[in-house]
Amino acid sequence: MGIPLNLLLILLFYTQVHAGRIYGGKEAVPHSRPYMVLLEKAVTNNLKPGSCCGFLVREDFVMTAAHCNGRSIKVKLGVHNVQQEQGQEMLVKQAFPHPNYDEEYNNDIMLLKLEEIAVFTDRVRPIGLPLTKDEEVPKDCLVSGWGHTTRNVKQGSPVLQDLNVTLDENQLCSDNHQVCSSGLNGPAQGDSGGPLVCNGVAYGVVSTKTRNNTYIYMRIPDFLDWINDTMKN
């Protein structure tokens, strides 16, 4: 006996809705994002593997979100599957959260000075930043990370995930040096600090998400003076 048509439609609808609740992406082509960095931070005495992402902007500097700061931080570069690859591992020598960062996630951007210089390979390479602070951020962008892939499942992805996002006009991001995307799909817990990449350039830093599924990114062009001064000094 076949499945009644109305039950079949219900089952198909449930499957589509359930699939739509996945945070988004698909597995990235291995090592196609050589700038991606996995952060393991210690808040007390324990490292929390994969607690944040970051991205390499110079051989000795990683950019991430200020709320990813910890008592100590270790970074992994050049990995795709974090359970199977070691990559280049090193400690952070000094963290530079933005001086105006606050608990409401304003100015949620940070630079990490590495203890060692990263060795550039086809798996480890920095990403470019905007050249001027008056650049407009393109609307069609990409986010990547090892964060959660399914709602209500408190576990990150072992392999790097990619997701295309479209930035939109949102009152939440009309000021405060932020841009936004919205919808069911977007960066999840564990993706914080990763880059918002548009046309191959890092224009934003993944910051936080609101309850109505608005995803907030720090607008990198607004911070160029601070970025350049911090890395130079």
Describe the model:
It is found in: Secreted, Extracellular space. InterPro entries: Peptidase_S1_PA, Peptidase_S1_PA_chymotrypsin, Peptidase_S1A, Trypsin_dom, TRYPSIN_HIS, TRYPSIN_SER. It is an enzyme of class 3 (hydrolase). Residues 1-19 form the signal peptide. It catalyses: Preferential cleavage: Arg-|-Xaa, Lys-|-Xaa. The chain is mainly β and 233 residues long. It folds into 2 domains: 36-126 and 226-232, Trypsin-like serine proteases (Thrombin, subunit H), CATH 2.40.10; 140-221, Trypsin-like serine proteases (Thrombin, subunit H). It contains 2 helices and 13 strands; from the N terminus they run αβββββββββββββα. The strands form 2 sheets. A 6-stranded antiparallel barrel has the order 8-9-10-13-12-11. Strands 2-3-4-7-6-5 form a 6-stranded antiparallel barrel. A hairpin with a 2-residue loop joins β3 (47-58) and β4. The protein is globular. The N and C termini lie far apart (75 Å). The relative contact order is 0.19. Mean pLDDT is 86; it is low at 1-22.
Please describe the structure with a list of short key phrases separated by commas or semicolons.
Thrombin, subunit H, mainly beta, globular, 233 residues, six-stranded antiparallel beta barrel, 11% helix, six-stranded antiparallel barrel, disordered N terminus
